[in-house]
Specification:
The protein is mainly alpha-helical. It folds into two domains: 87 residues, Winged helix-like DNA-binding domain superfamily/Winged helix DNA-binding domain (Arc Repressor Mutant, subunit A), CATH 1.10.10; 79 residues. Helix content is 66%, strand content 7%. The chain is elongated, with a radius of gyration of 21 Å.
Length: 182
């Protein structure tokens, strides 16, 4: 059986508080955790269905006076055990960083300076915008769990390090492009 980050997140959230698939998707999206661990809404729904089919979750239909019926997911004992397995698996994995923009960094020197500079400026702008968004999220700690706040803080510090690195990279890249154009 594959090990899934999505399963780990979903099982953990349902263990914390039983929720329906829509509520899980909304919760992860609201706190932007879906972006930080790369979970799309369709993946949430698909994985909830698989977790139900495999017996890790149990769905119970609930109805309130003002709302239509919905299926709320509860962890089973098998689901709690799977959660522990996934936690152990991911704790033992080497830490890896994957940045899609590294493809740009690796390839930008293949472009003329006048073509590469606007792309690097776009990347810098994206890093600055991410900093702004993360700073905003850090200002509302009462809306986000301690763990969620910790991940946002981690992302903020990582973004700060990337901005510092980018400034150094861009300076060196410009210097090299000047010497190669002479």
């Amino acid at each position: 059986m594959t090990t899934s980050v999505i399963d780990l997140i979903l099982l953990g959230q349902v263990i914390r508080k039983p929720l329906g698939a829509y509520d899980l998707a909304h919760l992860l999206h609201k706190h932007n955790l879906s972006d930080m661990v790369r979970i799309s809404k369709p993946a949430i729904y698909s994985n909830i269905r698989k977790l139900l089919e495999r017996g890790y979750l149990e769905g119970r239909i609930t109805k309130t006076r003002r709302r239509p019926e919905k299926r709320v997911c509860y962890p089973t004992e098998k689901g709690r055990a799977r959660f522990q397995e996934l936690m152990a698996h991911f704790a033992a994995q080497p830490v890896r960083y994957h940045f899609d923009f590294n493809a740009l960094i690796i390839s930008v020197s293949q472009l003329p300076r006048e073509a590469g500079e606007p792309l690097l400026e776009q990347l810098r702008t994206g890093l600055e915008e991410q900093r702004r968004l993360l700073k905003e999220r850090l200002k509302a700690p009462e809306e986000i769990s301690f763990a969620g706040q910790s991940v946002i803080r981690q992302q903020y510090l990582l973004n700060e390090a990337l901005l510092k690195w980018f400034k150094e990279f861009r300076g060196e890249h410009r210097a090299r492009m000047r010497t190669s154009n002479q």
